[in-house]
Amino acid sequence: MNIFDGTKSPHIYANVRGEFRRPDEAQKLAEIEAALEQDKAIQHFNLAVATYQKGRDYTNFIIVAGYAAFFALWSDVAKDIDRASRLLSGGLLGLSLVLFITWEIVKMVTNAREGHLLSEAIWGARNREDLALRSRDAERQINLADVFAHDLWPAIFIPTVLSGLVGALVLVIAALAEWAALA
User: Fold this and answer.
1) What pTM, to 2 d.p., does this model score?
2) How confident is the model at residue 50 (pLDDT cuts 50, 70, 90)?
3) Where are the domains of the chain?
């Protein structure tokens, strides 16, 4: 006899942990465990996103600090080094800074566009099916933009770093040459 309606006898079985459950409890338990696994996956995804964002923020901080240190050093020794070295180092660091700022603007515009696409998908949907369709379309467009940005990144990153490092190196070498001349 069923304990809820008195018509059937309860079927009891042992789960993998050796706990005895009725089939309806087992189904509910399985659904709860599946939801917990999905929550774990979401937590792992959120952790990965947060880690990436912290790494990106740290990298940007280091880059900006590097530019600030260079321009502070450049302004301090510029009067003591030859004009060609001053122009070359300033030009190279200026190029590096322009490339870095351009990339950050591209990222800012891309992020705003992604937010707009997702907002349109959510607020423009007429029902769940339409929301799912719009969300998939927005996700597809976002993924295409991400692939393009991923492919473009080396073309921006390499000249940014190289021009920055060479500019800093020119400044340091010129400053050391002037210092050696004083001795």
Assistant:
1) 0.64
2) confident
3) 1-58, 81-182
Cβ atoms of 9 and 3 closer than 8 Å = no
Beta bridge partners of residue 13, listed in sequence order:
21
User: Environment class of residue 163 by beta-carbon count within 10 Å: exposed (0-12), middle (13-18) or buried (19+)?
Assistant: buried
Mean local confidence (pLDDT), 54-66: 84
Per-residue model confidence (pLDDT) at position 24: 66
Q: What is the pLDDT of residue 101?
A: 92
Closest by CA to 81, choosing from 180, 183, 175, is 175
- What mean pLDDT is predicted for residues 147-168? 91
Helical ranges in the chain per DSSP H: 23-77, 83-124, 128-182
Judge contact between 46 and 38, C-beta under 8 A.
no
Token reading at 11: 């079927």
Q: Specify whether the backbone of 150 is left (phi greater than 0), alpha (psi in -120 to 50) or beta.
A: alpha
**From residue 99, how far is each of 49, 61, 72, 92, 170 by CA, in Å?**
25, 16, 20, 11, 19
Low-confidence winner among 5-19, 30-44, 144-158 (lowest mean pLDDT): 5-19
Q: Which residue, 167, 155, 156, is CA-closest to 92?
A: 167
| DSSP letter assigned to residue 118 | H
List, as one string, the DSSP characters of 41-73: HHHHHHHHHHHHHHHHHHHHHHHHHHHHHHHHH
